[in-house]
Amino acid sequence: MRPDFMKTINEKVLLIDGAMGTMLQSAGLPVGEASEKWNLEQPDIVEEIQRKYVDAGSDIILTNSFGGSYFKLDANGLGAQTAKINKSAAQIARRAAGESVYVAGSIGPTGQFLEPLGTVSTDKMEDVFELQIEALIEGGIDVVCIETMSDPHEAACAVRAAKKLAHIPVIASMTYDSGKAGFRTMMGNDVASCAKILSDAGADVLSTNCGLGIDQMIGIVKEMRAASNLPLMAEPNAGLPELVGGKTVFRETAEMMSGKLLNLVKAGLSIVGGCCGTSPEYIKRFRAVVDAFNKTNRE
């Protein structure tokens, strides 16, 4: 039986996994096809990727459900299968994780905007997230991970939906850009305002993922720590994305990232992992850094 998640992250730093989308594309997922479809059509491939992350040393693995909201799936003709797809995502990850590794249900942006900018009411947005999260909980997740969010109010809808359903830890992760005004989401929100909105909604862990590499994320983590006493998580990309020959590439190798990881952890993290451009090779190197930090600082 896995120990209590919140208790564990207060005792030591945990390692979450790396990228899923690029791994699935490497395994043959056509560009533009909903990766969540493979939870039903190619579950063995999804499980194999997640097992690679477990073997690399991940303490937490994410479900293949990032685009699993009804809104996203319906745009791909899969809306009627929302519950089935998400429950399957959780069951696949649960098999890969075994008894010792935590499973986090991945919840990404819906692609829709809340009123008044968009047409979706707060109640409707919460209902859509509730449908997805309920299926993930039925499939066996330990944690909800709301990630890669640009609108903290949409993320807050997901947090509240999760809290309605079960007494389960909720991670809420925002994506920021770096500019003259400092770190801001695509919607223009700064780190401190996002921290307050998500904390008020009931998030248990605050996080940042995607968009930036370790060098930039250290600053975001410091701002999150100044704004909140909640546990923190960060999942940087393998450096800043570059467009080469029409394809997005990430230049930082596993060796380069692992060499910087300690500074990111020291900024105040309870959970660390990788996002775009990372793979099980990166997580394996991260494992050594996290183990060394825990031995020095938490024992």
What does this 3D model show about the protein?
The protein is an alpha/beta fold and 299 residues long. The protein has one domain (5-297): TIM Barrel, CATH 3.20.20. The chain has twelve helices and twelve strands. It has helices at 5-9, 21-26, 38-41, 43-56, 70-75, 82-97, 122-139, 152-165, 191-201, 214-227, 254-266, 280-297; strands at residues 14-15, 60-62, 102-107, 143-149, 170-174, 177-179, 182-184, 205-209, 232-235, 241-244, 247-250, 271-272. It has an eight-stranded parallel sheet with strand order 1-12-9-8-5-4-3-2. α4 (43-56) runs parallel beside α12, α6 (82-97) packs across α7 and α10 (214-227) runs parallel beside α11.
Overall spatial form:
globular
Order of helices and strands, N to C?
Answer: HEHHHEHHEHEHEEEHEHEEEHEH
Can you identify the CATH superfamily?
A: Homocysteine-binding-like domain
What does the radius of gyration come to? 18 Å
* Unreliable sequence segments: none
Number of strands: 12
Main sheet overview? 8 strands, parallel
